[in-house]
Design brief:
globular; 12 strands; 5-stranded antiparallel beta sheet; about 350 residues
Length: about 350
């Protein structure tokens, strides 16, 4: 008497998006075991979303249908500038990259600033800014690792997403559209300016990697907010998730706070969008395992219903009853990720 049973309304719903889960599993030594993640994937109920990629999955989790490609640049701008006010600009990511040429082709071999110090980065930024200003384009460098530009009119084509263009012949990655000729010229001018930039001259003489180009991609307008409030709080370092959280008035916290020993989420509905922060796959997967283990303890106590997704949209929902599905064997992660979805 006096004991109140928890209802569905009382239970927190925590969604964990581990976009790079398959890649991390492939990169760790064979035979490595991760009991919490394996239990969720082996005994959880299928909960899959039909999406082409992880950024579309992020929109789907908010209940938003993007109009075409995901406007990565616009959401990046919202996150990096922290400006909630909607504007009418068409945004393009303009990320620093490294190109390498052989006798017949040019490849993008990496992106980001490698080992450049802040002074070198600033010199490269000013070099690129000068070229763009001559074209009447403003460079927005609200974040030291990524840049955006704002256009008054939308493009009639889309650039190849950055990670897909990595390793491609640039001639094939660049769009085949009449309007794209202008952007090819701008790209060539930026490359010439960067080739002559004192930072790259010094690095070339010292045999160091140069940042010798940029890549335009992720074009679009700032999207409308979701029709319903789906998340109270978002824990993430990913610019798309953070941008969506800002325009939807969610509480926004760094993903590292989800690793606190007392983590239970802030609010009734919580999204943890886990981004890989290092190249150490073992360490990254251990962090995810620790988070999953802590969440399973809360599931067992009846405090939490957990949904786990990878970047493909394949998901599992795990509640107290899921833990009693003893007839479903616990399989290694590599095996669980390749199995077809089951109820």
């Amino acid at each position: 008497r006096g004991v109140r049973l928890k209802t569905e309304v009382d239970v927190k719903h925590i969604t964990l998006l581990a976009e790079d889960l398959s890649g991390l599993v492939a990169a760790v030594p064979a035979g490595s075991r991760y009991p919490a993640l394996e239990r969720i994937l082996s005994r959880g109920h299928a909960n899959c979303l039909d999406v082409p990629d992880a950024n579309h999955l992020r929109f789907a989790l908010y209940g938003i249908e993007p109009d075409g490609d995901v406007p990565v640049a616009a959401l990046t701008h919202v996150n990096d500038s922290r400006k909630r006010k909607k504007n009418n600009y068409y945004w393009l990511r303009t990320d620093p990259v490294t190109m390498w040429a052989d006798m017949a082709r040019v490849f993008m071999t990496s992106y980001g600033f490698a080992d450049l110090n802040p002074f070198e980065r600033n010199e490269l930024e000013n070099c690129i800014r000068t070229v763009l200003e001559e074209e009447g384009i403003d460079l927005h460098a609200d974040h030291p690792e990524r840049w955006c530009i704002a256009l008054n009119e939308p493009l009639e084509f889309q650039f190849t997403p950055l990670e897909r263009a990595l390793g491609m012949d640039v001639a094939e990655a660049l769009p085949d559209h009449p309007e794209a000729r202008y952007w090819r010229r701008v790209l060539n001018e930026i490359q010439v300016a960067l080739h002559n930039c004192p930072v790259n001259v010094r690095r070339r003489q010292n045999g160091q990697q140069e940042v010798n180009s940029v890549w335009f991609w992720g074009g679009g307008f700032i999207p409308e907010s979701a029709p319903h409030d789906l998340f109270d709080t978002v824990y993430s370092d990913h610019p798309v998730s953070r941008g969506l959280a800002i325009i939807n008035d969610c509480k926004l916290k760094p993903q590292g706070e989800a690793l606190r020993p007392d983590f239970g989420g802030d609010g009734r509905t919580v999204l943890v969008d886990w981004c890989v922060a290092t190249r150490n796959a073992v360490a990254e997967l251990n962090r995810l395992e620790n988070l999953a283990s802590a969440l399973l303890e809360q599931v067992a106590s009846g405090e939490v219903i957990l949904s786990l997704f990878d970047g493909s949209g394949a998901g599992r929902e795990f509640n107290r009853r899921s833990g009693r599905r003893f007839w479903r064997p616990i399989r290694p992660l590599a095996r669980s990720l390749t199995l077809p979805s089951a109820a």
